[in-house]
Amino acid sequence: MLKGTTYAALALGLLAALVMVLWQGFGVVAHTVALVGWWFPSLVLWYVLPAFAMGASWSMVFPPGVGPSLAALTYINYLGSSVNALLPVGAVGGEVVKALMVVRRGVAGAMAGAAVVTDKAAQAASQLAFGLMGVGALIYLEAHRDLVTGLLGATVFFCFLLGAFFWFQREGMFSRLARGLERMTRGRLWWNVVGSAAELDGALDQIYRHRMRITAACSWRLVARLLFVVETWAIAQWMGHPIGWVEALMIESLTQTVRGMAFVVPSGLGAQEGAFLLLAGAAGLPPEVALAISLVKRGREIVAGAPALLALQWGAGKGLLAARRGG
């Protein structure tokens, strides 16, 4: 049922993105995308910086002396992010990959699961701060009042969801969910991934004792998001439609917010493109250019994330081969 819903959401998002491209004119959009030309590889190289910042964020979630090295966590987070961005798994498939890979490196299942959940909370907290920055930039640019009101309302709603997410963690709601899964699977599946509900509770409590580290994790996530502002700014320059830093911040922050809220659609397909079109006027960009920027960013995701999927496939193949030899 869940898989069918995911694929349906993917199909609708893909259809919506295609309609937007045809609406603006396929030839015009394709020509605008092509203007990036040989600058495109630099976008892939630039991605190394936000990837490192995201890895640093996750490393701060683990209590001191617990968890893999910064390099290992950066790599694992890169794999998980690529799965979320390129495969029809919603926004959680990559988190499962991250938890399993951390467990393989000797971390207790409960701590791995708790670290993934807390990392998701850090992502949400940084997205809220980033979204508010975007709304502030939109107000500064004197955008249409209805647009500001709508996006501000969406951000406030996101704030409510974030508060509920943190409250659920602190009140042990995730461990109660774990108990339900234990009963449904007779303990086997959940124990293999994150251990018992009591262990998950204990790991979350251990993580949240280090509040300064949680703050640092959120800060590193915000740094990663700000680095993507540079990406948006640079693409606009290469397309011959330069924008200022405020405009780039507004576009990047609010499209990320819209994409985050459309988490049921794999990769936010359609949602991101729609947000770019919606915000084009406020940024002083023609709609076809705004749409082209979104498509170039999609292209960077594919090129930067493809090696991760190949690495996961290679690792799965090696594991299967070893199992056969062992049998």
Description:
With 327 residues, the chain is mainly α. The chain has one domain. The protein has helices at 2-24, 26-34, 40-46, 48-61, 70-86, 93-104, 109-140, 145-170, 173-185, 188-194, 197-208, 211-238, 245-261, 271-283, 287-326. 42% of the residues are buried. The model is unreliable at 184-191 and 320-327 (pLDDT under 50).
| SSE ordering | HHHHHHHHHHHHHHH
Estimate the strand proportion. Answer: under 5%
Task: Give the count of helical stretches.
Answer: 15
Q: How many domain regions?
A: 1
> Based on helices, strands and strand pairing, what is the structural class?
mainly alpha
Key features of this structure:
about 325 residues, mainly alpha, disordered C terminus
